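Risk register update: the risk that structure generation would not scale has been downgraded. Supporting records follow, first protein first.
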Amino acid sequence: MTGILGMSAAERERCFVIRCVVAAELSQRVGAERLGICVRQVKRLVRAFRAEGDKGLVSCQRGRVSPRRMEPGLRARIVALLGDKYAGFGATLAAEKLLDPEGIAVSREAVRRLQIEFGMHRAKRRKAKRVFQLRERRPRFGELIQIDGSPHDWFEGRGPRCALMVFIDDATGRLTALRFAPCETTHAYLLGLKSHVLAHGCPLAFYSDRHGIFRVNAKDAASGDGKTEFGRVAERLGIELINALTPQAKGRVERANQTLQDRLVKEMRLHGISSIEAAQAFVPAFMAIWNARFAVAPRAAADAHRPWTQTPEALEEALAWREQRLLSKALTFSAGGTKYCVKTAGPGIAMRGARVTLYHFMDGDMRVRYKDRLLTCTAFGKLPRPTPAEDEKTLDTRIDAVIASNSLKSAEVPPRIAQGRG
């Protein structure tokens, strides 16, 4: 009989017990209990031991090549793709891209093993997190739309840093609007709101954070109606605006931001996108892929959206920023650092001191209304304007603009040549 060298610990234990059973030092039932197998299996092992010795107790699969082994040529091709074209891709996304468009069917675990073997896998650092109670999804599509902005280097250095405004449905996890902008602003959110309303209608509620775009955070505000411009637009459209206390409360859009920063960035890299305009043109195709991959069916089939039955021009007017002015005796007013004069058919005495409403449309156009009547105005002077204040979400864009302006000025000014004294 052969020795027990080269056996594993479990095989050595099995060999010792079977030897004791053969020598009648243990019964077959006791041996089965010690090995954790049935008596019938012990009898089979005893027959193998008597026929071949210790060799009969070793698995016949040892040393045999796995029938599921990857071919060397295919393995080399996958490693080359993971290191070049799909560098930095996670295992799941890389497996999807290897299947389509490369036509290589391989599991994500096989991709992960190859990434670990060749040093291409970067494990995420995990830390203890606070436990938050899970909230069940809303039952109907359009009951609650979570919105948030995600400033990120979306073009990986090929273009300027920008922000992505994300609108995602709570019931289905379906992306309803994506809007790229230089920074997170009210104007960018209103553009996303416009595309959502035109595509689906008005939802019942928006769920956002407590940024100044959605909520007046000044505790000592003595004037105003307590609403931001986005809040006023939501009120005109009949949409409830709800502010979350923590980022975890709107976890669906926060997790979507993380996934977008991984998948959307790499998709734009594959398509060679490096500008906000090209990225916005790519958004509809990406949203279709996302919704087909991640969206789920709602618990209730009814749609909670209220369809927009008016014209697109009426929606533009609802989204317009509004402010009021008092006309002077000369029928003039100031807005945006510019003086305007109202034109009238007659002397216009009745218009002195009248309160007019200015509509600032998202395309930059301004209209003046007085008692549902559109007034004609002409600009005739400029006023000094203070430097606008910035918050933490628009500061980076402001600094990038300053750097670009300084670079342009330095390029226009010729270098000074040192003049020697003659």
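Supporting record for the second protein:
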Amino acid sequence: MFRNIQIVLFSLVLVSSAGLSDATRAGYPEESLKVRRDALQRVYGGNETLHYSISWTGGVKIGDLRLEISTDSIKGNKITAKVTDYGLFKLFYPVDDFFTTFIDFYQRLPYRYEVLQREGHGRDETRRLTIYDQERLVVRYQRDDDEPLDVAISGPVHNEFSSFYITRCLTLDPGEVPVVPTFADKRRHEVDVNILGAEEVGSMFGKVSTIRVQPKMTFRGLYDKDGDTVIWFTDDVCRVPVKINSKILIGSLTAELVEYHNSLCPEYSVRGR
């Protein structure tokens, strides 16, 4: 159960990029998505920081998740994520994981993904490297010093992080069922995403109007998962993800936003509560 702190991270970023027609599903530029251009500018252009406190059923804090997106020279954006344990959780399963995704400016698709995981009492270290050739439709995956594995894919793919950021910029109209092209378990998957509608929820900013999104994941991915996940985005141009809830085998995990900064969203840019 204790390792399931990672479920929230994985579920948080598995939602993706849009309801695509069959004609555009095999290869799509940004123009084929139902994107809000104003949201696209805010999400990718403001050097944003998202800091979440992760708690188990009953409000017991067990970890922290920090996500940052910044401009990476002239080629695209860099997304970094760090997951750490907290409090008594360290006694059961220490966690110190770091993820870096590089995405291009044009399609917001990943071209490089680095993972460094230090977990358990021995702090065993695992490194993973994934290279995405979105034009040749080949993904190269390597773990530690193993031989690289080249996997042919049927169309462009996001990873867990690039999908999360582009999804925030979509229209997200109720009744739509966006499709997620996601590379996981060494192959391409298409995951349906349900748009559940509007809801007012409490947050570090007070009561805010949100859009609820629920990805339907049918594969393991980086981490085990045992139930549905719901994500709450603010219903405005900034699309701030204020809360994530993920069911697990015993109870549920909730990630609540406790720190936020984005230079292009000054109405929300406060350093913590």
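The chain has one domain: 2-261. On this basis the risk owner (M.S.) recommends closing the item.
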